[in-house]
Write a structure and sequence with these properties.
Blueprint (H helix, E strand, L loop, with lengths): L22 H8 L5 E2 L11 H9 L13 H11 L6 E4 L2 H12 L5 E5 L5 H8 L3 E5 L8 H6 L5 E7 L11 H10 L5 E5 L24 E6 L12 E4 L2 H10 L7 H12 L1 H25 L2 E2 L6 E5 L4 H10 L2 E2 L1 E2 L8 E5 L3 H13 L1
Parallel strand pairs: 1-11, 3-4, 3-5, 5-6, 6-7
Antiparallel strand pairs: 2-8, 7-8, 9-10, 10-13, 12-13
């Protein structure tokens, strides 16, 4: 029997996030035991061994509620970043903080500016809350900050800049970004999403935390899901003025971040050698892929993340299926705004080499 209760009108115009088939489903369908997952831009090197030990010690405490304010984690993270504890908001992934920022600050008559090809949850959450997404095309795969400034109206309430940008991996020049932040009116929130911050090794990448002292309308988002390898535990954080944090506390769930996630994040901060090793291995893999792709005549966006958007020059869906038949999962650019491209996670050197050899023989 069909349900007669109708959902909100806005949901009739919004599609669910495309998660795709599970690895197990694909293995079963294709009869392939070993599939190299280069699709989900996770840290394929996992998490620190000390994190695993810490999690085992916490298993006897699962009957207790987590600290709703994540005080211990906030204190340790504040010391590590050199910020005040009341500037840190801990979230169930940085995507939760995006949702809470929109819920707390965007009225139904107001607008939020974002790129056309970027993290899709900005647009979705703005629409769900009744705001208006204002879309500005990327320029060469990079945020067009000049065009974004020109789009500001009296209805503008927030601007999203994903840096490095997902799915292109590109960054905005630091001088251009500083000028942009200085030009945005102070009553407009600037949400600087730095989920891939640790992978950005270019000298042109902006170190944004020092700008918080001068720009109270700046919010910086980061995560433990990427370089720290804790995507399965959903831990993100925002660095912001304490007045913004106070408003987020009004709209968040009481126990929004689980106990194991908080413990794992605290332990991950302690093992910076593991983090540095992951960054170094990613840089080596990136250099290898760039060199080999140039030999093959393929172009790509210059990346400062742990993935690459590669321009194949053929239907991305077709190439994705051909690679899958050879045991390699990548993301088709067709669902990301670049129909003749694929997005590939930088993985172990063994997987990187296998990908290149397979690409040669397609």
């Amino acid at each position: 029997m069909a349900v007669k209760v109708k959902s909100r009108e806005i949901l009739q115009h919004i599609a669910a996030y495309p998660l795709g088939k599970s690895l197990q489903d694909i293995q079963s369908e294709l009869g392939i035991v070993n599939i190299r997952n280069m699709s989900e831009i996770e840290n394929v090197f996992g998490c620190s061994p000390s994190v695993k030990k810490q999690l085992m010690q916490r298993l006897d405490h699962l009957f207790t509620y987590p600290d709703g304010s994540a005080r211990a984690l906030s204190s340790k993270l504040a010391d590590f970043l050199g910020v005040a504890q009341n500037q840190l908001f801990i979230g169930n992934g940085s995507d939760e903080i995006i949702r809470l920022l929109i819920r707390a600050f965007l009225n139904t008559t107001e607008e939020a500016i974002m790129a056309d090809i970027t993290f899709p949850r900005y647009k979705t959450n703005v629409s769900i809350e009744g705001g208006t997404p204002v879309i500005v095309p990327l320029k060469g795969g990079v945020h067009d900050l000049t065009a974004m400034l020109a789009t500001i109206t009296e209805k503008t309430k927030m601007i999203f800049v994903c840096n490095p940008n997902n799915p292109t991996g590109t960054i905005v020049n630091k001088d251009d970004l500083i000028s942009f932040i200085e030009e945005v009116p102070e009553h407009i929130l600037i949400v600087l999403d730095e989920a891939y911050y640790e992978y950005a090794t270019s000298e042109e990448y902006l170190q944004s935390i020092p700008l918080l002292e001068k720009h109270a309308n700046l919010v910086i988002l980061r995560t433990f899901s990427k370089v720290y390898g804790l995507a399965g535990l959903r831990i993100g954080y925002g660095i912001m003025d304490s007045s913004i944090l106070a408003e987020l506390n009004k709209v968040k769930e009481v126990f929004n971040v689980n106990q194991l996630g908080q413990a794992a994040a605290m332990e991950a901060i302690m093992d910076q050698e593991f983090r540095k090793d992951c960054i170094l291995r990613n840089e080596r893999g990136r250099a290898y892929l760039e060199a080999e792709l140039e030999k093959l005549g393929y172009t790509y966006f210059p990346t400062n993340a742990n993935f690459m958007m590669i321009h194949i020059g053929k239907d991305g869906n077709e190439i994705t299926q051909q690679l899958l038949a050879k045991g390699i999962m990548v993301k088709s650019g067709a669902v990301l705004g670049y129909p003749n491209s694929i997005r590939v996670t930088i993985c172990s050197m063994e997987d990187n080499r296998y990908f290149i050899e397979t690409l040669k023989n397609l």
